[in-house]
Amino acid sequence: MKKIIVTLITLFALSAFAQTAETVEKAPLNYLKALQSSNDAVVSSAIFYVVKLQMFYPETRDYRITGQLITLANKSKNEAIRNQAELALKYIQYPELMKQLEKKDYKDGAEFFSMLSEKLPANPAEYAAAR
Q1: Tens of pLDDT, residues 109-131
Q2: Cα separation of 46 and 101, whole Å?
Q3: Domain boundaries, given as residue ranges, for the chain
Q4: What is the distance between the alpha carbons of residues 17 and 128, in angstroms, rounded to a whole number?
Q5: Distance between CA atoms of 106 and 75, rounded to whole angstroms?
Q6: Per the CB 3.0–4.6 Å rule, which of 19, 85, 111, 112 could disulfide with 73?
Q7: Closest CA to 50 of 63, 65, 70, 36
């Protein structure tokens, strides 16, 4: 199990920001598998890397990942996973709200999601107004 986790995390690091089109193309499938893991640390890391992938490669948006994030936001037993999935969904669904978020290679997932939550409007009605 530990070897699988290390392999998945390595895949995240290699595929999220590699320069080759093939690697970027394969990243969503790798992240989808990680989002379905029973290990919360792997899922949390995958959510973070999904958002980073969207930040740098918005054309990689994948409805299967969005669906898995919705499932995690609604059904995860882990509150932190639910919160991260919800924030990731908001980022993916309303990227125009994130133009104020600096596009850089963030390293700390917890810090990133804290910053992201501060940037998002608290009231969902504000999303429509921002469009």
Answers
A1: 788 788 778 777 666 566 555 54
A2: 20
A3: 2-130
A4: 31
A5: 27
A6: 85
A7: 65
Single-letter residue type at 122: A
Q: Per-residue DSSP letters for the chain?
A: -HHHHHHHHHHHHHHHS-S-HHHHHHHHHHHHHHHT-S-HHHHHHHHHHHHHHHHH-GGG--HHHHHHHHHHHHH-S-HHHHHHHHHHHHHHH-GGGGTTS--S----HHHHHHHHHHHS-SSTHHHHHH-
* 74 burial type by CB count under 10 A (0-12 exposed, 13-18 middle, 19+ buried): exposed
Token pair, residue 112, equals 């990133």
Task: Kindly indicate the confidence band of residue 13, based on its pLDDT and cuts at 50, 70 and 90.
Answer: low
Whether the pTM exceeds 0.70: the reply is yes
Residues near 36 by beta carbon (within 8 Å), at least 6 away in sequence: 68
